[in-house]
Amino acid sequence: MSAEPPEFVRTTRASYDTMAQAYADRFPDSLAEQPLDRALVKVFADFVRAAFPASPASAAPPPVADVGSGPGHVTAWLRELGLPVFGVDVSPRMVALARRSHPGLRFHVGSMTSLDLPDETLGGVLALYSIIHVPDGHLADAFAEFHRVLVPGGHVLLCFQAGKEGHVRLTERFGHAIQLDYYWRTPETVADRLSAAGLRPRARVLREPLGEETRPRAFLLADKPAGEPAPRPAVTPT
Fold first, then answer.
1. Burial of 94 (0-12, 13-18, 19+ CB in 10 A)
2. This prediction's pTM
């Protein structure tokens, strides 16, 4: 029997299940009006392809996971960029919407802190606006999972609202009652957490808010170095 997921996973799942259709209607394609965001996702795809060039044994790089895939439009964009890709989302209703909108792609329910994937099988992990719902005490678990599932040489691209560190809980969105937590972090904090998980930050971009946005957007690109052992977790003295 699988273990009960952490409380933050349960509340995040329930909140997105509640507002799934309204969210998909409001954000049918979050990259369409953001040329810089779209370009950075393409850069991520270019890095993954460069890390795993085509060969007689393999015509495509290892697959990429879009973690926190929501309605699936970013997953579909990655496929258009030539990557083998699938989506993972904590919300069953979001997964159902993504499957309906993109029937040629694979989506499944899962949590980034406990990915149901074998070790060292992915060429990349994309997480756009999904680590914002992970509490500080569980962020190391998520990044350890990214490290575990990545093939050496694989890449991670994170995007999140940046700024002064803090935490808020929304109780309403799109006219629906929810209980959804948001955790704000600086790019430096997230880069340090990636490094602690054995993932090497390679680039960071910070863009100013656009339109209705109120916080800057941070993009962090990292990779899993080849030939390095996984970091050992810190041991707390008893």
1. buried
2. 0.91
Residue 158 carries which DSSP code?
E
Is residue 75 domain-resident? yes
**Residue 166 is part of a domain; what is its CATH number?**
3.40.50.150
Q: What's the pLDDT at 47? A: 97
Q: In the prediction, which pLDDT does 107 show?
A: 98
Token pair for 178:
């929810």
**Residue 236, CA distances (Å) to 126, 141, 211, 233 in order:** 31, 16, 45, 9
Query: In this structure, what token pair is assigned to residue 186?
Result: 């600086």
Mean pLDDT of 190-196: 98
How remote is the C-alpha of 183 from its chain's centroid?
14
Whether 236 is covered by a domain: the verdict is no
The 10 Å CB-count burial string (b at 16+, else e) for 50-83 is ebbeeeeeeeebbbbbbbbbbbbbbbbbbbebeb
Q: Quote the number of domains for the chain.
A: 1
Looking at the chain, which runs of residues are DSSP E strands?
64-67, 85-89, 106-109, 122-128, 150-161, 166-173, 176-184, 200-207, 217-223
Give the whole-angstrom CA distance, residue 83 versus residue 81. 6
- The alpha carbon of residue 136 and the mean position of all alpha carbons in its chain are separated, in whole angstroms, by 16
* Percent of the chain as helix, strand, coil, to the nearest 5: 35, 30, 35
Beta strand pairing status for 122-128 and 64-67?
A: parallel
Cα distance between residue 26 and residue 196, in whole Å:
36
Contact 141, 100 (CB under 8 A): no
